[in-house]
Amino acid sequence: MRIKDVVVREILDSRGETTIEVAIADDELRDFYAQIPSGRSRGKHEAAVLPFRDAEAAAARIERAISGRDFESIKDLDRYLIEMDGTPRKERLGGNVMLGVSLAFARALAFERKEELWQVLNREFFGGKADGPFRPLIFSNLINGGRHARNGLPVQEYMVVVRPRGSYVKTVGKLLRFYEILGDALRLKTGEEELPLGDEGGYATAFEDAFEPVQTLEDLITEHSLSEQFSIALDIAADSLYKDGAYDFGGLKLEAGTLRETYDDWFEWAPHLMSIEDPFEEGAGDDFAALRRDLAGVTGEKWVVGDDLTVTNPALIEKYAAAGAVDAVIIKANQAGTLSEACEAMNKASALGLKRIVSHRSGETEDNFLVHLARAGNAEGVKMGAPHESRVGKFNELLRLEGGMV
Ligand code: PGA
Ligand code: ZN
């Protein structure tokens, strides 16, 4: 397939900040689009994000370079872009621009083949095997802190993990109701009628300390007899707390060892707590591994998850799997900067026995490609914020793609 035009537009994300949309036109001048989300707590090794003016210039260079060329597959195009960029972090062409071109091109292929985006990805990267229904665990961020809120909580995300039970639409319905009862509980506690929300649609009220939100979720799960279906997950995003060898944890300066003991206590006090993402800064693989060893002694399945640590990068995933640092990895296509590399990271992770959680970013768009990526690679989990306004489209896409066939 040939691409004629590559255009970048400046659009708004769910936070009200700007991000980009990439549009390409095929030979017959049909347009295909991709909107690129934007993260606030980015890992150092993520693909670079070019601001709009530079993104426009990069798109013009890509357009000149690829016009008249035939690309047979997503891999074929991505390989060309990666070579053209020539830097490890995609600083010349921008991970946001490259992913936009890669994704819009995948949509053009899907149109040509009369398939869904996920089917194109599934065939090219995951061997075409996608039998049965797709019902991943849902990680939904219901209480926001860190850089996503202004309530002073050091922990960025307090999530519930919902396991599918019965029909998937009922499962999502249970999550919606849980989000409501949590809102009711927080209204009662704070006396506020209008609760402040964070960037991902979770509540951003004030709490006594960093553990209180965990206790709140723990109590509600028990009270409403949801222990079979609901667990708790945290994203510490610890890189944003780390300075001069210590973590600024709610006003306390904690060394890694003390922070680890804090987590050990939390897992002991909150039996529903099952997963902790980025518990230490992104160079601290040894601390991740030590925490993992501690959690091996706790009853139930417990996951240490890499996000800023592994940044959807196959080499880093391999390194930290070998170090015993993680049970699961977050997959964000824009950390990688092309669809090929994101799919390669998913395949690498599953070959190493790691779970994959395909994730949105805190600044989202209407583009629901993350659900297609998750469906294509049969991911064990999806992470999509609270089931609130700007994110509802992602939940609906998940319900649409649940079935084995389309
Ligand atoms: P970000 O954070 O999208 O703001 O980078 C999300 C996360 O850390 O998981
Ligand atoms: Zn994270």
Structure description:
By secondary structure, this protein is of the alpha/beta class. The chain is globular. The strands form three sheets. The protein has an eight-stranded mixed β-barrel with strand order 4-5-6-10-11-12-13-14, surrounded by five helices. Strands 1-2-3 form a three-stranded antiparallel β-sheet, with helices on one face. It has helices at 52-66, 74-85, 95-113, 117-125, 168-190, 212-223, 256-269, 285-296, 314-322, 333-336, 339-351, 369-376, 392-400, and strands at residues 3-12, 18-26, 31-35, 137-144, 157-162, 230-235, 242-243, 246-249, 252-254, 273-277, 303-306, 328-331, 355-359, 381-383. It is 39% helix and 18% strand. It folds into two domains: 3-114, Enolase-like, domain 1; 137-404, Enolase-like C-terminal domain (TIM Barrel), CATH 3.20.20. The chain binds 2-phosphoglycolic acid and zinc ion (ZN). 2-phosphoglycolic acid (PGA) is lined by residues 39-42, 235, 237, 307, 359, 361-362. 2-phosphoglycolic acid binds next to loops.
